[in-house]
Amino acid sequence: xxxxxxxxxTTAYKFNKPSSFSLLYKPSxxxxxxxxxxxxxxxxxxxxxxxxxxxxxxxTSTMGDVLADSTMDAVQRRLMFEDECILVDESDNVIGxxxxxxxxxxxxxxxxxALHRAFSVFLFNSKYELLLQxxxxxxxxxxxxxxxxxCSHPLYRESELIKEDVLGVxxxxxxxxLDELGIPAEDVPVDQFTPLGRMLYKAPxxxxxxxxxxxxxxxxxxxxxxxxxxxxxxxAKYVSREDLKEICRKADAGEEGVTLSPWFRLVVDxxxxxxxxxxxxxxxxxxxDMETIHKLIE
Length: 298
What we know:
Blueprint: H1 2-11, E1 13-17, E2 20-23, H2 27-34, H3 51-58, H4 61-68, H5 74-82, E3 84-88, E4 94-99, H6 100-103, H7 106-110, E5 116-124, E6 130-135, E7 146-147, E8 150-152, H8 167-181, E9 194-204, E10 210-221, E11 233-239, H9 241-253, H10 262-281, E12 293-295
Parallel strand pairs: 5-10, 9-12
Antiparallel strand pairs: 1-2, 3-4, 5-8, 6-7, 6-11, 9-10
Helix pairs in contact: 1-4
C-alpha cells in the first residue's frame, strides 16, 4: 500500500512555478475509494496542509505505518496530519513548518529537524489555585500524565504567526483552551494572558515519539467554566501549592501511578513557585522575561 500511496502522491502535483506546487486531489477521497477497508476512521482535509509537508508525511512508507497503526486514536491520527507546526531555530526564528506527525517522531528530533514552537498555559482561579489536566489515554505523546492547564502548539497560520505582543501564541492558547477544556473564548480574552518566558527542551516519550519544543509560558488568572473534551483530557482539577507538592512527591516516589509531563516538571522545578508568588501579589508583570530563552536540555 505504501508504494501505491507514494506513487500517487508523487504524481498528484501540478508544477505552477519554481517554488510552489498545488495538490490536484482530495487525499481523503482518493484513499476512501482505493483503500476503503484501511481508512474507515481516517479523514484528511487537503486544505489543512501545505503541499510540501503533506508530501513528506503522506508519500512514504511511514504513512503506511500510521494507517496500519490500530493503536492510534482516530482523532489523534487526524490531528497528526492536519496540524502544521511552526519550525524555529534555537533563537525562535521561524524557519519553516511541518506536520505534527513529523515534528514528534524521535527520528526527526534526533536528526535536528523537529524543533517547533509550543506554549504551556497556567490558569489560576481567583483563589490562586492552579488548574491541572491529565492527558487523555489516546494522546500519542505522554498519555495519562498530569500536566499544566493546557499544552499545545501555535499552528502555521496567519493568526498564530503574529509576533507582536506574542499575539499569535495567545490566539493559539485561547483556541486550545476551548478545544481541550471547553473554556469559552470570552472567559479567556487574549489580552489577559501574561507571557512570562520561553524555554527550550527535549524529551522522549517512548521509542518512536517525543518532544523538542521552544515553549512559551503563559499565565492567566480567571474564573472560568470547564468542560473537558474526553478526546484530549482524562481529568482536570484545581490544586493549591501544597497539593502540587504532594503530587510531585508521589510522582518522585512512584506512588499511585502518578506521572508528570517533562515540560511541566521543568517549569515546576525552575520557575513555578516564585511565579506563583507574583500571581498572589498581583505583580506578574515584574516576572516577565521574554528576552531570555532558557535552554533546559541535558
